[in-house]
Specification:
The structure holds 2 protein chains of 2 kinds. Chain A is mostly helical. Chain A is about 80% helix and about 0% strand. Chain A has 10 helices and 1 strand; from the N terminus they run H-H-E-H-H-H-H-H-H-H-H. The longest helix of chain A has about 35 residues. Chain A is flat. Chain A starts with a helix and ends with a helix. Chain B is an alpha/beta fold. In chain B, helix 2 packs across helix 3 and helix 3 crosses helix 4. The longest helix of chain B has 16 residues. Chain B starts with a strand and ends in a 5-residue tail after the last helix. The chains are: A mainly alpha, B alpha/beta. At the A-B interface, strand 1, helix 5 and helix 6 of A face strand 1 and helix 2 of B. Strand 1 of chain A pairs antiparallel with strand 1 of chain B, so a sheet runs across the interface.
Amino acid sequence: MTEGVSALDLVLVGDPTLYSIVRLSLFVSLSALTIASFIGMPLGAFLALVHFPGRTFLVVVTNAFMGLPPVLVGLAVFLLLSRSGPLGFLGILFTPRAMIVAQALLVLPIIAALTRQTVEDLWMEYRDELTAMRIGPFRRVLTLLWDARFSLVTILLAGFGRAAAEVGSLMIVGGNIDGFTRTITTTIALETSKGDLPLAMGLGLVLIVIIIIVNAVAWSVRRVAEIRGV
Amino acid sequence: MQWHGACGASPKSAGYNLMRPPVSDLPIVLQDASFSIGQLTILHHISLSLEPGAPTVLIGPNGSGKTTLIRVAMGLCCPTAGSITWGGRAHSHGDRRAMVFQRPVMLRRTAAANVAFALAAAGISRNAQSALTAELLGKVGLKNLAFRQARRLSGGEQQRLALARALARDPEILFLDEPTASLDPAATKAVEDIIRAIAASGIKIVMTTHDLGQASRLAGEIIFLVRGRIVEHAFAERFFTSPATSEAAAFLRGDIVI
């Protein structure tokens, strides 16, 4: 009970340690989401609209990777970025950049697979009209992405939810360094094991609020789309 | 690697072509054209020439191949046997052909934005789009609904918006696939009036319908299809007064023709 009150105190008084951790978490998750979106959305649209040998295999792999174990991604990124790894020369292991890379890799299949499904469904609906209007491939992709914008926002929020709640890969590639690579989830894991429950619970509260806000935004976007009939 | 595309489209058809060549897609000539999906043959050895002039209306029972025939003529699918030419060419940009579907898909934007989209696709500059959009919406009686979400329009309004969108291509030929199939009489009349005005402006109309009354009101010539074959191709007046085949006579009597 007292830990709960202390946790609430930390949140309400704006504890600098707590909020620096929250800021880093948001920075890492949003950066990863941005990178994953710029790659995942065009990739998903490409998989939806272009038929080529091996497409089905790629679709299956993309779908399967939505459930990629974070620790496995963490391990792969660690091996890539470690000093003896192929990208070791970048020197970004145990930095927020490495965490962004790991999270982007985790979120990318979610964005790509859900975008593919959304665009493919919309293409089934639009194919005759856009073909009759002689819309070229590039404009076709833009049109479908724009007309699927409300669904895509929901997909982005789902990706953000995955990134914000992730812990395993961040531990491995970030190292959970105090004041440098410590995020909400890694701090909760560490502080709980140390028995410092107020900070862990305070961060947990913030994480829950973030997740609720994300879901509320997703729900609102859907609702607006329904009301406007788009 | 293959993008979904249109039949008979030349390689440049995907891009905009502001300097359209002064060539016509008419006549559209099908020579012994068939269309099959797997083992199922939908069109059998169709030979046909669609010439400039009064509207051509395709009638026939369900499954007779009316929709498939206009899709082939539009270039949305290729004959699996035989050939098709547009203005004597096996490949055409298709810039001057437009089509309105039985259930047109409204893009998720306003009515005006739907028309502007079609204008942009036709290569019209952004500066000219606003005035042309208003003009086209005016032609189909939707000017006062310009800023309503297209998917919020009624069925008849959506069909009229689809006509405005098709006209944005400044077509020489307009294909209409049962444009009033699910509309009430008032909405049907509104759409028919627009079709008449379009035909009067010199655009070749090729349409399908189940409604014999509508066919007699709009058609200059009738193509009567049964089981993927052209059974009769005649001027509308002659077709309705003295059909040349027993199938056509039975169809006009309201008998079931399979």
